[in-house]
Amino acid sequence: MTKTVRRAAISAEELADEGTEPSCAPKAPPVRAALLEAMSGNALFESLQPELLEAIADSMAEHVAAEGEVIIRQGDPGDHLYIVHSGAFAAFVADAASGQEAKVADYKSGQYFGELALLYNSPRAATVRAQETGTCYCLDRATFRTLVKGYLTKSKVGLQQYLSTVPVLRGLEAEQYAELASAAGVDVFHDGEYICSMGEAADELFLVVCHKGDGGELMRLAEGQFFGESALQEGSELQKRQANVVSVGRTSLARIRREDFVRLLGSLTQAMNRNLNRKVLAGVALLSPLDDALKDQIVDAFVEETYPDGANIVTKGDQGKAFHIIKSGSAVVQASDDVTLGPSQYFGERSMRPW
């Protein structure tokens, strides 16, 4: 008869101390370089930014292990990643029935173990012992999460500022930049790797890249610069990339897809028009007591109409059915004394009364 062993549950618990400031112990350059080299070979770290990786390295705690010391024990809760700096370590798995151990892995300088503990709370799958006196550096899950969360928060704020400098996006509101920053994806490209190719669909805005074209370098973009902004303009569904874009060194870039922009804000024209309507409405003193939510409802209810020069908008004696706010241009109210009205001025407000 085969005995079925139920796997221990994996949980993604909330950590009470995630909000605390991680301790920082700056490493000597050779140690930091070794830790960064070790992390570069781990998929868990490969998409993280260099400054975040350095902060992670500086937050790792040094542990000197004596020969035979158990670093992690099979079945115990896992909450640390270990990177071997010196010495030799080995992993053993105990047979569930007999309890006898079998060696399954060796770890030496530059190698790591226990990395899954940074993702979730799961019992250790093996026991790791020091085979000789050695040193390893460890990182706990709470510190890892706090560093990543803090970095992402600061990155989003910086990305909002970058987005506000993109000419095609000027005129958006602060909360709209925040929405776009939250929707932006972040990718890492290595030296010589193509970010996009000539002839591909132009459907994303990119920030922080190096730009090369066939037959030589066309331009080089530094941190905070961008390309591909035409992807957010009307009719861009049919546009194609006009040049190859190649990473120079290790390049991190943020990208905003056209479909995400439309999902969040509608078309670029719609978003800009809505923002202009908000500004026009903000200048109407009559509506100033209203809260922002109600003003947004009024903006959504706007029907925009354009009149040629000299056209009658309303005629004296007709029943008033609409409240008019001038968005651009001017209108003359012809009464005993003619009055010229400009942007954010209004007429027909009496038609809004319920009596």
TrEMBL record:
Q: Which residues form the Cyclic nucleotide-binding domain?
A: 44-165, 168-277, 286-352
| Gene Ontology CC terms, in alphabetical order | cAMP-dependent protein kinase complex; cytosol
Concerning InterPro entries, the annotation shows: cAMP-dep_PK_reg_su-like, cNMP-bd_CS, cNMP-bd_dom, cNMP-bd_dom_sf, RmlC-like_jellyroll
Pfam families found in the cross-reference section: cNMP_binding
Query: SUPFAM superfamilies of this UniProt entry?
Result: cAMP-binding domain-like
**Gene3D superfamilies from the entry?**
Jelly Rolls
The protein's matches in PANTHER family, at most eight in alphabetical order, are given as: CAMP-DEPENDENT PROTEIN KINASE REGULATORY CHAIN (PTHR11635), CAMP-DEPENDENT PROTEIN KINASE TYPE I REGULATORY SUBUNIT-RELATED (PTHR11635:SF152)
Q: What is this protein called?
A: Cyclic nucleotide-binding domain-containing protein
